[in-house]
Design brief:
Shape: elongated
Largest sheet: 8 strands, mixed
Oligomer: single chain
Distance between the termini: 16 Å
Length: 380
C-alpha cells in the first residue's frame, strides 16, 4: 500500500485528532495538554521525542534516514487565542475564553499525521527530519525563543503551513508560499501632570497627549509602493472622575509593512512622532516594542519543491500569496538564516481570529498528503 492510500484509510482518524485538539485550546507557552497529547502520539509512532525543547511547551521529534542527507524541519504552531468560541460545533472549545480561531489545531494535526504517515510507510531514506511543534506564535515570541535555544541550528531547510481563508486559497487549492507582512506592536506609557479640571493650565493632560499622538502616527508616510499601515488600537486613560486632568495613560499601536526595509523606516518615524508629540506637550512617553515580527523571506528552491508537491496532490498549485497578516515562522529565515517556505492550505472559511470561524475538515487530510509528498520527494 502506498502512503496516499494509507492517508485516505486514516482520514477519519486525522479528523478525530483535529477535533480533539480543537476542544483543548491553550494560550502561548501554556499548551500543556496539547503538548502532552502530541508527544504521546509521536512516541507511539516510534519517533525520538524531546519535550520542553525551548524551555516551555515546545516539542522536537526526530526521524533519521539510513543515508547521508540534509537536516530538514517541518513546523506547526500550537497556541490558541483568548476568544470565546461561538461556533456551536459539537467539538467546540471546552476551555472558557479560549479558542482555536487561527487553525493551529489543524497545523498540529497535519504535521503530526505527516510524521505518522512517514513512520508507517518506511520513514525517510536520506538525512534527518525534525518535526517541530512551536508554542506562542500569536505572541510573536515562540519562534525566536526556539531559535535562541540552539536546538534547531542544524536545520537547513524549514517548512511550515497555514490554513488560508477562501479569499486567498479556496478549499481544494494550496499556495506554494504565503508572503506575510512585518508586524510591530507597540505599547506606549504616557506620563503627565494631574490637576483639577477647572485649572487645566496647571496640569499636563495625557488624554489630550494621546489624541495628538494618535493623529501624528496616522499621518506618518512611508514608500507608497509598499503596503503598510500604522494605527492606534487602544487608549486607556481613566482617573475615576471626569473633573480630574489625567496624568497617566497607556496607548497601543499596530504597525504593518510588506517589507522589512519599510518597517524599519516606519518604526523610526512612528517613534519620532510619539516622542516629539509628548515632548511638545511637556509629557513623557515610554515606548515598548513588543515582539517585532519580520516580513517573509521565501526561498525560491523550496517554493518550487512545494509547487511540485501541491501539483502532485491537487493537479495545480497557486504561487506566492501576499497577505497583510504576520507570522513568526519568518524569524527562522530572516534572523536564523534558514531556507524556508510556508505553504497555504485552502479552506472554506472567510477569516481567521473570529469566534464563529469554521474550517472545512477535509483540509487536514489534504495538508497531510501535500506535506508527506513534499518530504518524500526531498528525503526519499
Amino acid at each position: 500500500m502506498g502512503y496516499m492510500q494509507w492517508i485516505e484509510q486514516h482520514e477519519d482518524d486525522i479528523i478525530k485528532t483535529y477535533k480533539h485538539l480543537h476542544t483543548i485550546p491553550e494560550l502561548g507557552h501554556e499548551e500543556f495538554k496539547t503538548s502532552a497529547f502530541i508527544a504521546q502520539e509521536l512516541r507511539a509512532a516510534g519517533l525520538e521525542v524531546e519535550e520542553k525543547a525551548e524551555g516551555t511547551t515546545g516539542i522536537i521529534a526526530t526521524m533519521r534516514g539510513t543515508e547521508p542527507g540534509p537536516v530538514v524541519g517541518i513546523r506547526a504552531d500550537m497556541d490558541a487565542l483568548p476568544i470565546e468560541e461561538e461556533t456551536g460545533l459539537p467539538f467546540a472549545s471546552t476551555h472558557p475564553g479560549r479558542m482555536h480561531a487561527c487553525g493551529h489545531d489543524a497545523h498540529c494535526t497535519i504535521v503530526l499525521w505527516t510524521a505518522k504517515t512517514l513512520a508507517a510507510n518506511g520513514g525517510i531514506k536520506r538525512g534527518t527530519l525534525k518535526f517541530v511543534f512551536q508554542p506562542a506564535e500569536e505572541l510573536l515570541s515562540g519562534a525566536r525563543r526556539f531559535l535562541e535555544s540552539g536546538k534547531l541550528d542544524d536545520i537547513e531547510d524549514f517548512y511550515s503551513l497555514h490554513l488560508r481563508p477562501r479569499s486567498e486559497a479556496k478549499f481544494g487549492e494550496a499556495a506554494a508560499g504565503i508572503s506575510h507582512s512585518a508586524a510591530c506592536p507597540l505599547k506606549v506609557t504616557l506620563g503627565g501632570k494631574s490637576s483639577h479640571g477647572a485649572r487645566p493650565h496647571q496640569g499636563i493632560n495625557v488624554a489630550e497627549v494621546a489624541g495628538l499622538i494618535s493623529h501624528a502616527v496616522g499621518i506618518v508616510h512611508c514608500d507608497p509602493r509598499v503596503t503598510h499601515s500604522a494605527k492606534c488600537t487602544g487608549i486607556h486613560v481613566d482617573t475615576g472622575a471626569t473633573n480630574i486632568i489625567p496624568d497617566k495613560g497607556t496607548m497601543y499601536f499596530d504597525l504593518r509593512s510588506q517589507t522589512n526595509e519599510v518597517m524599519d523606516d516606519q518604526l523610526e518615524k512612528v517613534t519620532r512622532a510619539i516622542t516629539k508629540c509628548a515632548e511638545a506637550m511637556g509629557a513623557t512617553a515610554e515606548i515598548d516594542v513588543r515582539g517585532r515580527c519580520p516580513a517573509a523571506k521565501l526561498d525560491p528552491d523550496l517554493l518550487q519543491e512545494a509547487t511540485d508537491a501541491i501539483t502532485s496532490v491537487l493537479g495545480s498549485a497557486l504561487g506566492v500569496v501576499e497577505v497583510p497578516a504576520s507570522e513568526d515562522f519568518h524569524v527562522f529565515a530572516v534572523e536564523g538564516g534558514k531556507r524556508t517556505t510556508l505553504i497555504g492550505i485552502g479552506t472554506d472559511c472567510e477569516t481567521h481570529h473570529n469566534p464563529k470561524v469554521v474550517y472545512n475538515l477535509g483540509a487536514t487530510p489534504i495538508g497531510v498528503k501535500i506535506m508527506t509528498t513534499l518530504l518524500k520527494n526531498k528525503l526519499g
